[in-house]
Amino acid sequence: MRNVLAVSLGLGLVAGSASAAAQPLCLPRAALLQQLQADFGERLLWQGRLAAEPGQEGPILEIFVSPNGGSWTLVHSLPNGLSCFVAAGASWAPGLAAPAPEGRKS
Question: Domain boundaries in the chain?
C-alpha cells in the first residue's frame, strides 16, 4: 500500500502542476485511520487546525507515525469527514527540542 501511496502522491504532485484535474487520495476519516493502523501500526502524533473563515471550522493537518520510527504519514482532514494523504515516508524521528534559555551570567 505504501508504494501505491507514494506513486499516487508523486503522480498527483507532477500532474497537479500541469493540470487541475489531479485529485489527492482521500478516504472517510475512520477508514484512513484504520488503514494506517492495520498496515503500518501508525498512530496520531500531532494535529493542528488550519485557519478558516470566521464562523467556519477549518481543516486539520495531522502526522501519524509508527512506534518503531519506521514510517510516517501526513494527512489533511477536511470538515466534511474526508481525510486526504499528503505525504508519507520512512525513518521518522522526533524533532530537536528548542534550546534551553541561557542562565544568568555571573
Answer: 2-17+26-90
Return the closest-CA partner of residue 45 out of 30, 33, 54: 33
**Residue-wise DSSP of 1-66:** -HHHHHHHHHHHHHHHHH-TT----EEEHHHHHHHHHHHH--EEEEEEEPP-STTSPPPEEEEEE-
Distance of CA 62 to the CA centre of its chain: 5
Cell 504532485 found at: 13
- Contact indicator for 74, 86 with CB cutoff of 8 Å: yes
- Alpha carbon distance 7, 81 (integer Å): 24
pLDDT, tens digit (0-9, with 9 covering 90-100), for 38-67: 999 999 999 999 988 888 889 999 999 998
User: CA 25, CA 104: separation in Å to the nearest integer?
Assistant: 52
